[in-house]
Design goal:
The chain is extended and about 50 Å long. The protein is mostly helical. It has 6 helices and 2 strands, in the order ααααββαα. It has a domain of 84 residues. The mean pLDDT is 87. This is Reverse transcriptase domain-containing protein. It comes from Pocillopora damicornis.
């Protein structure tokens, strides 16, 4: 258990400035490319997921360089911000574009790989309170109730 200490904004900023951002190794990138879902729709980049999966060994060095550059420069590539958006009706007879439709956005495949890598890297440094049960792997309402009743 880590001891909780209150830090000022300037202390946090100086702490972050001293450490370079975590970057993935090429093995982590290969693993994510190898396990992409080939049935997902192709985004605006035109790169189908089956291509990333099938050629993960060959594409990993290039994707690794793109991801590392994005992380080190703290820049999310502009092309990754574009998506194919399809309106899907929520109701049988939609009349209002704002209320009766939900949007389905298909992002570029490499953007999804970057997001998965960032999530894994950031979760390593994230330390959650022991009483946090929602939105946490291997925790549920049952573990929350068990911890309350056993204390």
């Amino acid at each position: 258990d880590r001891e909780t200490t209150a830090l000022s904004v300037s202390e946090v900023a100086s702490e972050l400035d001293d450490r370079p951002p975590p970057v993935p190794n090429i093995g982590q990138v290969k693993a994510i490319l190898k396990h992409v879902n080939p049935r997902k729709a192709t985004g605006v980049d035109g790169v189908p997921e089956w291509l990333l999966k099938r050629f993960h060994e060959e594409l990993a060095p290039v994707v690794h360089d793109i991801i590392c550059a994005s992380i080190v420069q703290s820049k999310y590539p502009t092309s990754y911000k574009h998506a194919l958006v399809s309106p899907v009706p929520k109701v049988d007879n939609p009349t209002d574009i704002d209320d009766d439709f939900r949007q389905i956005s298909v992002l570029p495949q490499v953007a999804k790989v970057l997001e998965r890598i960032q999530l894994k890297l950031n979760l390593k440094d994230l330390s959650l309170n022991a009483s946090q049960h929602a939105f946490t792997a291997d925790r549920s309402i049952m573990t929350a109730l068990a911890s309350i009743t056993q204390d």
